[in-house]
Amino acid sequence: MRKRILFLIIAFITFLILAAICHYLFYPVYEKKMERISDGWTITIGDTVYENIDLNYIPNNITFPTGKDATISLSRVIPASSTYVFPTIMFPSRYSAFDFFADNELIDEGFNDLLEEGSFIGKSNNMITLPRKDTPISVRIDLHVPEKATYSYFVPPIYGEYHDVIRGYLFQNMFPLASGIFLIIFGAAFCIITLSFYKTLPTILSQLFSSILFVDLGIWILTYFNLLDFFLFTNSKSSEVEYFSLYLMIPLTYTIIGCIQDHYKDWIFLVVAGTSTIICLTLIALHFLNIMHMDRTLHYFQCVSIMCSLFLCATFYKDIKQKKLLPAEIIQMVGLTFFTMSYPVNFIAFTLELVRIIPLSMLTSRLIPMGGLIFVFANLINYFIYISESFAMRKEYASLTHLAYADGLTDLPNRSRYDKYMSDLDKSTDEYCIISLDLNGLKEINDKKGHAAGDKYLIEFASVLKQCFESKAFIARIGGDEFVAILKEEYFNQVETLITRLKDALEVKNVLYPGYRRSVATGFAYSTELNHRDSHSVYLLADKRMYESKKIMHAKLGIAPRI
What we know:
This protein is of the alpha+beta class. It has 3 domains: about 130 residues, Galactose-binding domain-like (Jelly Rolls), CATH 2.60.120; about 220 residues, Up-down Bundle (Rhopdopsin 7-helix transmembrane proteins), CATH 1.20.1070; about 140 residues, 2-Layer Sandwich (Alpha-Beta Plaits). Helix content is about 55%, strand content about 15%. It is built from 15 helices and 14 strands. The protein has a 6-stranded antiparallel β-sheet with strand order 3-2-4-9-6-7. A 4-stranded antiparallel β-sheet has the order 1-10-5-8. Strand 12 and strand 13 form a beta hairpin. The radius of gyration is 39 Å and the shape is elongated. The model has no long low-confidence stretch (mean pLDDT about 80).
């Protein structure tokens, strides 16, 4: 187990090293210049004009619209576009329609139809193809805001060659892109694997819901970073997928916690988890009922997520203190804690960046994907430990069960197992045949040659009995020299053939190993011979017939009857 954990740790560290190498050593070289235009913007809000604004550092004195149906204009002169084959500017819009002007000419617009319908407008990366000109171009972006307080910060547009703009954006977001795709694929595969073990390991539910959370997290990452629009046309609806997957994380997290150590049986857990789940589902319902869109309810979700993180930490601490958690569960809870804490930490860091308390950093946008990968890593360790421990326990249980129900000498089922099988026969409606078998001459061999020879006789007979009846019958040793074979109705026509085969096999042993004579007396009875369904009565009938046969055999072999 330690070797497996060490292997996973090395694999995780190797993944981080490779990611760093790919980022710093294989940065794409662009044939054309591409730049992020952040400074020199003029922002017009109503009759108020703010000049020479750096979009990375919006001054605190700028007051953005707080009502609906406001327009924010961003204008700037950009360099000549003739140096590019396909001059393109990419700018993000958030919850607003837009009109894009080049030299006061409208060249593109987006989401105005949704604005007129009053439908929800999400986030989008908008690719605008500019006319090729040898002179600088004056561009203006009019953002039509249907929601209250939509903008408080701006992401600077990217200007350059079309393919360079796309490649640059994707590479800058390569970590969340790779993390999102990995989480979706890994989560789906992990879910299938977990489902395959569910029947044999019903307690694997926490891993099952973890795999669903991986898929949900991967979808959220792709939509949060506006990466889904590069693969699918969503008409800004990817934001609905983003918030939907985000709000589902809380119920899934509580479900995982509930499956660990059966916390769902605790009334405090049920109250907290139920309340949080209802809040999240209500926020989703409010959006689709067009009462309050999800971007307006994010602060409610933040409160619920912080409560979830605190509750998880408190539950984890209590379980550790009471020593209730298994090693696999501890690792899973550590990973889940890292993940749940990554979102509040990301939100706090992002807020501090907006108010200029801490500088802008690409690290902030990496916190949640990294938290998700740590959770995946913890679940892999948990999975290895859990599966190994579960199968070890099942193997131990099977071993103990075998010892309890197996004859120590012949390894055949013993009297206890036979009694249970007979009890099961009485409960079923199947017809059956019981063959009573009794070895001849075991007492004489024990008396003359010793018990070691007698034990050898029993072991040899058990081996021959197994070979002859194969998987056609239940066989057991129920006494010193007493054995039984029980056949189902489909083998009724083979009963005498099987008994003959058994006796012939013993005769072969006598020829090859003539140290003592091997033989067996048999008698059989069918359940159909008796009106009442009683397996013991059927056995007594078979045993009676066996003793009648045994008397005849003893007389022929000259074996003295037992006293």
